[in-house]
Amino acid sequence: MPVVLYNVPGRTAVNMLPETVARLSKISNIVGIKEASGDLNQIKKIRKLAGEDFIILSGEDAQNFAIYQLGGVGAISVASNIAPQKVASVWDKFEAGLKDEAKFIQEELLPLNKAIFIETNPIPVKTALAMMKKIKEEFRLPLTPMSSENKKRFEEVLKSYNLI
Fold first, then answer.
1. How far apart, in whole angstroms, are the C-alpha atoms of residue 114 and residue 106?
2. Which residue numbers are catalytic?
3. Distances (CA, A) of 133 to 27, 86, 136, 157
């Protein structure tokens, strides 16, 4: 079964170093990495050490375009739960060679990418989907509803994208 490594130091408190990723990439069923260290130099080094066939996926919505420029081939995205067409269009435009258009859409998404982390993920995503009438707003501990102040700020961002 193919395995994609998951490097999200913000959640695990450990950063998977490029040298470690390169060693793991030699294992036949380890095919790629979701890279969310936030360090573009680290991604460059992974590409160099692990080789062109090793899949790099963006795990940091605000860096999708930049990661594509470094050889990333897609994203495992939080924002795509809320605005899937917009997030996908960055990749579609990039892959089609329309890099200026891809970069423009990526920049348009910056306020949303920032807002989806106004509180601990996945609280904002669940809140947004409830505001969009896609799901019922329910949380199980340790998750709790978004604070009313943040919810109001978040609602304004969602309105600016015509999501609600």
1. 12
2. 6, 34
3. 44, 19, 7, 16
Q: Which residues pair with 57 in a beta bridge?
A: 34
* Other Cβ atoms closer than 10 A to 72: 24
pLDDT category of residue 3 using cuts at 50, 70 and 90: very high
Q: 105 and 97 in contact (C-beta within 8 Å)? A: no
Domain boundary among 16, 43, 76: 76
Are 49 and 103 within one domain? no
Q: Is 63 within a domain?
A: yes
Q: Taking residues 37-41, what's their average pLDDT?
A: 96
User: CA 137 → CA 122, 125, 128, distances in Å?
Assistant: 12, 10, 9
Chain-centre distance of CA 53, in angstroms? 21
Condensed to tens digits (0 to 9), the pLDDT of residues 122-139 reads 999 999 999 999 999 999
Per-position b or e across 26-61, b if 16+ CB within 10 A of its CB: eeeebebbbbbbebeebbebbbebbeeebbbbbbbb
Q: What is the span of the domain harbouring residue 156? A: 99-164
> What distances in angstroms separate CA 131 from CA 87, 118, 137, one per listed residue?
19, 16, 8
Give yes or no: residues 108 and 63 share one domain. Answer: no
